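Example record

One chain of 394 residues, shown exactly as stored in the release files.
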Amino acid sequence: MSKPWRPATQLVHGGTTRSQHGETAEAIFLTQGFVYDTAEAAEARFKGETDGFIYARYGSPTNDMFEKRMCMLEGAEDARATASGMAAVAAAILCQVKAGDHIVAARALFGSCRWVVETLAPRYGIECTLVDGRDLANWEKAIRKNTRVFFLESPTNPTLEVVDIAGVARLADQIGAKVVVDNVFATPLFQKPLELGAHIVVYSATKHIDGQGRCLGGVVLSDKEWINTHLQDYFRHTGPAMSPFNAWTLLKGIETLPLRVRQQTENASRIADFLAGQKQVARVIYPGRSDHPQADIIARQMTGGSTLVCLELKGGKDAAFALQNALDVVKISNNLGDAKSLITHPATTTHKNLAEEARAELGIAAGTLRFSAGIEDGDDLLEDFARALSRVPA
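Predicted structure tokens for this chain:
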């Protein structure tokens, strides 16, 4: 190619390799293993002297295409596709720490992410400190001599807090630690953590990348040295590999990522503005609004808003449930980033395992709802919320 492709072109053509049949759509290689012309060829491949596939748990041609396409979009040197987003998170963190090491993580995390660093890691002698990630001073105060990893989401789930990724990365570089960023809520279209100084980026490809409710998937992206030194052996021996069928499904989904995210973001912005003026609503948090508490950081590190809106109803849990139950177009689901608009009540779903005090620290109240905008007609969504809110007492 004569010059680097722009994102929309990368997501249609990036990383594609074709078989001898010259297929238009990427081929699905549903094979567990691969054969070699000679015993010497097998030996050379296992030694790493020649390129090629060995076993589907290590990689496959279909997975390789997905990984290369994600690398082009993210600006990463290498990647590994995983069976789910949580497989990506666990692999990215655990592959580089050992007993006696220390993790600093933002306290505002998806429930399962928080379980990995707060509950699982300590079982193996890995210490963890949770901080309010909005203030860089908290990250700096938490550093110890054995700190090896900083982990964060930005924007966060579900309250859409934002962390200064570049600032955290500068602190990490001073002590030789690595920054792992879960970039799901921003999508790779609106935020580039590697360009901001982060070292590893993870995604739940289940969300916007597939974005159509069909399959699970995840991906870890970084430079080749980190992948080869830390992730490669962990990945091969613990087996979090993505199914080639899922990789193919994600390749089809990613082709339309810019189109879907553009419409989803427009819908989310309209809904956020509408909700902000309703008497039943105590507060609205949306990264595309000027009243977001960290609008200055958003302006520096994001190029778009979000497909997610966080809102809090004055009437607590009863009002939140009443709104959800009254919606027609918007469906109740704990998923997000889907072509269909979805809404969930974090306190009783995604963050139910957190203590009430911990939820309060994160700003998750009894009336908090997380709305994930889909690609429906924006007017239908506005009418759906207006009708549903009319059934919620002020």
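Notes: The mean pLDDT is 96.
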